[in-house]
Amino acid sequence: MSTKPTEPLSEVLHRGMQRARSYDWQGAIEHFRRGVALNPESVEARFRLGWALWNAADGEKPTIADMAMVYGAQVFGFDNTARDGKRKVQSYRQLLSDSVYYLNSVLERDPEHARAYYYLAKALNAADRKPEADAAARKAAQLEPGNTNYNSLAQSLEQVNPRQSDSNADPLPRSGGGMEPSSWDDLVLNPKTKRELRQMQLMLEKPDLALELGVQSPTGVLLKGPPGTGKTTIARVLATEAKCSFYSITPADINQMYVGESEKRVRDLFAKARANPPAIIFVDEIDALLPARQGGSVTVHSDKVVNQFLQEMDGITPNSRVFIVGATNRPDMLDSALRRGGRLSREIEIPLPDLDARRQLFDIVTRKANLDDNVDLEALARDTDGYSGADIKALVNEAGLQALIRIADADSNLPRTLTMSDFSGALHNLG
Question: Is residue 170 assigned to a domain?
Answer without folding.
Answer: no
